[in-house]
Amino acid sequence: QVQLVESGGGLVQPGGSLRLSCAASGTIARVNDMYWYRQIPGKERDLVASITRDGDTITADSVKGRFTISRDDARNTMYLQMSSLKPEDTAVYFCKAVIKWAYWARPEDYWGQGTQVIVSS
């Protein structure tokens, strides 16, 4: 059984910084690509950033230059460093990882439960 748990969310002032973490645990053979999404109530869930197993990254235009995605494979953990936060960054942030629980298994998508980020003065 594989689980993803996000942490690090909270309330910050505009212009502040926050680092989100997404830790994978359980029976894991390999973690492939990983993703950060965010969702505002009543809106679609949007892709914020992605990082491949090899470390190649893509960030959405709305956060480019402010957010940095990274991963630590030794800890099966992905991070989202958020700087210069804006009120429009307020959302629930979700992580997704493509994981093989066994090397012979097919890779599957796993989602975390989400962590709330509120940017407000």
Proportion of strand residues = over 45%
What is the helix fraction of residues, given as a range?
under 10%
Q: How many separate helices?
A: 0
Q: Radius of gyration, rounded?
A: 14 Å
Main sheet record: 7 strands, mixed
List the uncertain runs. none
Commentary on this structure:
This protein is mainly beta. The protein is 0% helix and 57% strand. It is built from no helices and 11 strands. It has strands at 2-7, 10-12, 18-26, 30-39, 45-51, 57-59, 67-72, 77-82, 91-100, 108-111, 115-119. Strands 2, 4, 5, 6, 9, 10 and 11 form a 7-stranded mixed beta sheet that branches. A hairpin with a 7-residue loop joins strand 9 and strand 10. The model has no long low-confidence stretch (mean pLDDT 96).
Q: Short description, anyone?
A:
The chain is mainly β.
